[in-house]
Amino acid sequence: MEHTLVLVKPDGVRRNLCGTILARYEAKGLTISALKLMQVPRELAEKHYAEHAEKPFFGELVDFITSGPVLAMVLSGENAVAVVRQLNGATNPLEAVPGSIRGDFGLAINENVVHASDAVATAQREIALWFPEFTE
Ligand code: CMP
Q1: Which of 89, 109, 110, 114 has the maximum number of C-beta atoms within 10 A of its C-beta?
Q2: What pTM was estimated for this model as a whole?
């Protein structure tokens, strides 16, 4: 069983898209193994986005993810990391195909509705960060 970390970002929560987005993951056959609505502490945001620390948009990234509650979850299933990435679509909503979450609901790269782990190793790091109590 593989696990991945998914965040419905503040734009998705503000636009009341949580139910719609969760329904897509569940309909695909993934299991919700952990779920919480939370205001993101700045320190957690900075750790989560540590690999982007040198990018010019790092400050904007942290400001945005801390701008309102996010719905954080662990999704589980066979090939969960790749399956969620496919359901989410390309990072840039302009490149995400219609039918994907970002293709259907996103307008801009900085407010792209969802985040998901990009690889199994990243998922392990991110789950430990967001759900330190999580055990398989
Ligand atoms: P996410 O999957 O949360 O991980 C890194 C985020 O950086 C990505 O989604 C985008 O929302 C954001 N991002 C990538 N490129 C840019 C950019 N050029 N300007 C602002 N944000 C960006």
Answers
A1: 114
A2: 0.97
User: Does residue 49 form part of some domain?
Assistant: yes
* pLDDT tens-digit readout, 8-22: 999 999 999 999 999
Q: Angle of helix 18-28 relative to helix 80-88, nearest 10 degrees? A: 130
Task: Identify the residue whose tokens are 């904007």.
Answer: 60
Residues 6+ apart with CB under 8 A from 113: 8, 9, 11, 12, 17, 21, 93, 101, 102, 105, 106
| Domain presence at residue 136 | no
What are the tens digits of pLDDT across the range 36-60?
999 999 999 999 999 999 999 999 9
In the reported structure, the alpha carbon of residue 2 is separated from the centroid of ligand 1 by a whole-number distance in angstroms of 24
- Domain assignment of residue 6, given as a range: 2-130
Interface confidence: ipTM more than 0.85 = yes
Whether residue 24 is contained in a domain is answered as: yes
